[in-house]
Amino acid sequence: MTVLGVILARAGSKGLPGKCMRPLLDRPLIAYSFDHALQSHRLSVSLLTTDSADAKALARQYGIDVVDRPGDLATDTATVDAAARHAVTMWEAGQDAVVGAVALIYGNIPVRADGVIDRAIEKLAQTGADSVRSVAAVSKQHPDWLHRLDGDRMAQFRKNSIYRRQDLTPLYYHDGAAVVVTRDALFGALETPDDHQAFLGADRRAIVQDAQDAVDVDEALDLQVAEAILRARREGAHADR
Asked: What residue ranges define each of the domains in the chain, with the CATH number in brackets?
């Protein structure tokens, strides 16, 4: 099965302008996603879709193909799956080939667990699912510990009397580290344009990892968290030598 890795990045970002090229430990943020794609053993080929001239230039230095993302697919309201479909269509037209699955690699995630993209691809192949995503367990922000506010008056989001973390029903959030979908699911979503999750298909599977295995950078604080984790990993690697 041909698996296309589509690295996604935009030049604009309301929360963190120029996010994909922000420095992180003296490297552009997106460079870490380039590393993750190139380190994968299961991706057949990877490309970058972006409207950032700087990101395009950097991708070419890494030997990564580039798809020029149209302006209407680079706004903050454009969907990820629409940008991915455009990238897939452009690649297939140039190669005269059709992919079997697509790995969506978000360019604002500099921290990923080793091999997580390959694990997701392998699970997709083994299960025959429509999509596989990496998830991590919800902890202190579990819905049973959340409240609505009426002024300063608190009301439980869900009525309960749970006070021990161990008694909470296990729930998981998608951490963004790995998203792999079949081509059929990605393009089948065009049939239900009002469902913005349709590109994940009907059979959606998960691989579970720890919260620190991925950092999704949306604001300046996320950069600091990512830097701390990357420094710790670097120091750990040096200590093992």
From this structure: 3-135+172-239 (3.90.550.10)
Phi, psi (deg, nearest 5) at residue 172 = -135, 150
Q: What angle do CA 41, 45, 48 make, to 5 degrees?
A: 120
User: CA 60, CA 78: separation in Å to the nearest integer?
Assistant: 25
Q: How many beta carbons lie within 10 A of that of residue 16, not counting itself?
A: 16
Other Cβ atoms less than 10 A from the Cβ of 197: the count is: 11
CA angle 164, 169, 172 (to 5 degrees): 115
Instruction: Give the mean pLDDT per block of 10 residues along the chain (241 residues).
Output: 96 82 95 98 97 96 96 91 97 93 97 97 98 96 96 96 93 97 98 96 98 94 95 76 58
The kind and range of the H/E element at 178 are strand 172-182
| CA separation, residue 44 to residues 6, 37, 55, 197 (Å) | 11, 10, 21, 25
Q: Is the pTM of this model over 0.90?
A: yes
- Name residues whose C-beta falls within 8 Å of residue 3's C-beta, 6 or more positions apart in sequence: 42, 43, 44, 99, 100, 101, 102, 103, 121, 180
